[in-house]
Write a structure and sequence with these properties.
Blueprint: H1 2-12, H2 17-24, H3 41-49, E1 61-66, H4 73-85, E2 108-114, E3 121-129, H5 143-150, E4 185-191, H6 199-215, E5 219-224, H7 226-229, H8 231-235, H9 244-257, E6 264-266, H10 278-328, H11 336-342, H12 351-359, H13 375-385, E7 389-390, E8 396-397, H14 407-414, H15 421-437, H16 439-447, H17 458-461, E9 468-475, H18 482-494, E10 499-502, E11 510-517, H19 521-530, H20 532-535, E12 541-548, E13 569-576, E14 579-582, H21 586-600
Helix pairs in contact: 3-10, 5-6, 12-16, 13-15, 15-16, 18-21
Amino acid sequence: MAQQSDFFKRLFGFESPEHTAQKAESPTLDEPWRELDWGEKQKNLKYVQEYKPEQDDIRYLRVLLYGPVGAGKSSFINSVSSVLRGRMTIPALASATTSDKSFTKKYETHKFNKGRGRAKTFYPLVFNDFMGLEDGTNRGVHADDIKLALEGHLKEGYEFNQVAPISQDDPGYNPTPSADDRVHVLVCVMSANTPQMNSSVLEKMKSVRETASDLGIPQMAMMTCIDEAYCEIDKDLRTVYKSKYLRKKMKDFSSAVGIPVNCIFPVKNYSEEIDMNDDIDTLILSALRKMVDFGDDFIEKAEMAAVGAEDNNMEDNGSAGEKDHKAASQPEGPKLETALQIYQPGNSHTETSSAMMDNLGMEQDDGDESSSEKSTETSFAMMDNLGGTQSQNGNCDEGMEQDDGDESSSEKSTGSNTDDPSTRSRLRDGWSNLTDKLPTLAKLEQSNQTTNSERLSFSSHFKPPAPVVKVHYISTSDTFGADTAIMKQLKNNLKSSVQLEETTRRNCSIIIVFCPVGLNYESEVKSAMEKEAVSSSGKPFIVVLMHHTRHPDYSTAECDVSEVLKNVFYVHVFYHETKPGLLECSQNARAIKLIEDVLLSKK
């Protein structure tokens, strides 16, 4: 047959109709339409395993999975976990039956274990699984819930409500999401074995995609069940990119949802297998590497935008400072500080000024009788400092400068006695002017109902704020929230002496490095010290060596890091995931006190 076809082609310049028909009917292409190196499994695995976000305030690259019911989201999470750990695992419960009801009911974060036993940590890559999108209204997860999850507003364990999306007063709502809570990659999971997707589900997917686009979040799609959709792939997984059916399916999905074809990846989840398969791993790792790249690009872009905004704020503050300086050089109206400078303890004033000081809780010296002769002069001086105008006839006008007048009138005004009716009239007018300028003090004077027990001293009422120490902290691995608990405890313990302000590495005055350690403590500490955020910061830092243990009397004698941490201040603390924060023990109390002493030295 082949010889006849070749003869026909040489004779007429084209192949025989029979051969052309046979070729057109072939379900596969001669060459793959997308290149994939099936021998790069180990290379891609190492790439994913060694990834760490560069930004200090982001511990995990967060991937959000969404899609129709039964698309294989939970199975994909299990497959990724198996690939990373090199053995079969099932961190996410998945349903083996086909149903139009979603198996996932809660918003969960799936972390992937790295290492075993005491040395167990987590990869800096997490997946959030969502309730499936169901056909019709009030069914499945609300698109609004997915939108809020993109911004980090859903807390771990939030139980989905099919009737209504989450509200801001719900306990599962996070009002102040951090950069670590936000989603960095949005991944749509759909089955290649689905004949046609319902229009209502497609509309929900488009709505989610539009929100992600507005937030600048990169988007991908995983096409699962490829072995069920095309029998040739089930026989040989390496024909995946030769399948005409699969290529058309991906193009149709791209047109329907709007995700580019080069962002759609066919994968096969582990379902029937009990042992690992290199070809399955290769497809999953190919997609996983792109997730890491896309997410890391988004994190870097967000960081650059934040730095740019910070620089703009500094410029704006500089401009505002120049305006304030110019404004300060111009004549101003009366200020509260001016009046308070006059009413210092030990001075004598008129009955009115004494009452005002009394209401402010300020002590007044009794003085002698001669001091009352100076009260009028002091009152006029006070009004003069506040900007009141004293004219020749003794009345206080609204002007800001004092009329020169003649010497005789000046002598009369300063030499007046409070028994003189005209002097009392001038004082009343002056006090009225003063209360217009200082409404707060006027209110205090007019109320005059504060008892001695309720009065505050001037010094306590106007107590200056505690100095600020700007701190930036980094966690080199998962601490089960112990790092956050430590920072909260430090803030609370030091609040009367110093204000701890969490800020960026660029603006901080000291860095705290939370470093969970296990059996390989030396390499873990070295790795922490080599992080760019620490090694290139040029800032002093504290290293908190965190030991994962249940025992408060755990010994750290074997964890000798003195050579690794030469000239570096470090402490040992104990924590465990079953107890929030740190264990209650003397070792942790001493460590917290030592950290506090270092922070106090920075104020």
